[in-house]
Amino acid sequence: IDQLRDFxxxxxxxxxxxxxxxxxxxxxxxxxxxxxxxxxxxxSLRLFLSEVIECLRAALLxxxxxxxxxxxxxxAALVERVGGSTDVEGSEIAPALLSSLLTxxxx
Length: 107
What we know:
Blueprint: H1 8-18, H2 24-37, H3 41-47, H4 49-60, H5 65-82, H6 93-106
Helix pairs in contact: 1-2, 1-4, 4-5, 4-6
């Protein structure tokens, strides 16, 4: 796990997404990884917010329904954890994810 910390910018967004998978076994594995990597979830999400948003946008725009579902669940969790933040970066969540959601809904 210590070696993964060197790649937090890549690993944390994927881990955040994967822990919202619809398969409970996959969820559990990635939740364990998340808990090992992250001390404070809100701070980590704010620190890597743009990377997390890009990962979630890719998931929402995926052709895989399972990936889209995990992306939507992770987006809701992101808004719950960071959306109330008063910093400027927190305000970028809604527009970035909303455009992806609208694209998906148009089909």
